[in-house]
Amino acid sequence: MGPKGIEMVKDIEKQAWYGSLGRYFAKKSYEDEPLLDFAMARRKLPEPICSGRPDYIEGYWKAWEIAYRNAYVPNPASGFVSNFVDAAFNSSIFLWDTVFITMFCNLGHPYIPGIRSLDNFYCKQFDDGEIPREIVRDTGEPFDRWLNWRRKPLHSYFHNHYRYRGLFSIDPPNYEEMHKPDLGRTVEEPPYLTLDALNHPLPAWAELESLRHTGDTGRLKLVWEPLYRYYRALHHHLRNRFGLFVTDWASMDNSPRNRYLGSGVDISCEMALFARQLTEMAGILAELYEREGDGQRVRELREAQAELAEDARNISAAVNDYMWDPASGFYYDVMEDGQLAPVKTIAAYWALLSGVADEAQAASLVRWLENPAAFARKHRVPTLAADEEGYQPAGGYWQGAVWAPTNTMVVRGLEKYGYHQLARDIAVEHLDRVTQVYRETGTFWENYAADFVAQGDKGKPDFVGWSGIGPILFLLEHAIGLKGDALRNVLRWRLNPALGESGCRRYWFNGRTVDLRAVPEGDGFEVTAESDGPLTLRIEYGGREVSVDLMPGKPCKVRL
Hints:
With 560 residues, the chain is of the alpha+beta class. A five-stranded antiparallel β-sheet has the order 1-10-11-12-15. Strands 8-9-13-14 form a four-stranded mixed β-sheet. A two-stranded antiparallel sheet has the order 2-3. The protein has helices at residues 3-18, 38-41, 54-69, 95-105, 119-122, 157-162, 203-214, 217-238, 265-291, 295-322, 350-353, 359-369, 404-416, 420-441, 470-479; strands at 47-50, 71-72, 84-85, 92-94, 134-136, 324-325, 330-331, 482-485, 490-494, 502-509, 512-521, 524-531, 535-541, 544-550, 556-559.
């Protein structure tokens, strides 16, 4: 078919496909609060205190300034339904970028459209549940190259058309052959999107992170069906004969792993994570609907819970059967023939966040993190192990650079297995490194070198974007030490003596605004706290924990 014929097919398909987009998301038209400019927002956003590190404070406000520069009211022609913070990469919005953007924007909720940025993906969901990874910002249309216009069986645009991203030496994988009918997938039901657009299924993680900070269970009701449908679509289209999930270049554009894919350890663990997080969501929603007396919804959710829990167990078992190498104590991608791919990458650490690893496997992954020859470089954690062929000390994009999203995944995974000090060390180190580079360059970057304190040699500036995680989220959560659980209405504060006087004014959490200050006093602290709504504050320092019930109009003072 020539170019004119392809364009005719596209026009016909657009009419057929686009008319049913977003059917599972109840928000159908644009509705949002006025978008604040940075000068106005700065008077409302949390104001961190750390007298010993004024450079942290400077970087924090610069990151918010850039974020507001990249915040948008949608073009009416786009069909988007909410304001959003852009990925800061090009003229498109990206699903996995947006997931990580929401995580630092949660701290500015409701004064910046963080979690609502995902609405513009849910409203573009196809009727089989697929959600495009990349959507053009001005038009609201899925990125053209990732659309499966001819409704061919599952394939990768880059692999099959260009053998792109350094894949010239191999033939494109035969994804159709990698599937078997006994898995319930038939090639007569092809996806709307190419494999390039079906990776990193992480919005459920973003929604749960937001829920734990905002306490907004109403949003959980809104997003449950789009998320469940998305999971089912990926489970249908991407699961292969090993019970794993296929990927092509997995958004790690030039990684040496790409020539071997195959089944991705990241997408496979992410699907286990997705199933577990939907299981958790279903349980929360079932309790809400039970209190409301909606027995039918409760039964549906309990059935989904059981189904998803079984999926998570099966996927985890497949990952451990095929992707774990006991000899090296590491997880690897799997090639088309079922053999392990011979490249150690940060993708293995999705096995922690997803709960796939057992305690011994987690300990082995931690040993690799602590190995200076592999991942314990000057700026942790490089995306390619330093002892792998092709590692680039100056970054090389996905050939060894340090990225905010993958570091966030590693930190959260370590916390899940109880490695809290290592998680905090990596997060604060990342904050230190990006702050130093900010002081030298005046901005934040898409990625960073692992062997030097410098921006990555292949990366964009003003990347806030997901790089806001370091100067905003890691500052407040790991350096200053504030982390909330809105479902329990508990705010934890792990005091950090390295900061001197520390705390936060106007810390927003679960609909409350809290003022917190810790002043060094002898070998301890004097802590003052005040909240405009009831909550429990748990303060940790020196192996002690003090719990205080804060009430409106009743400031408290505690000595530790």
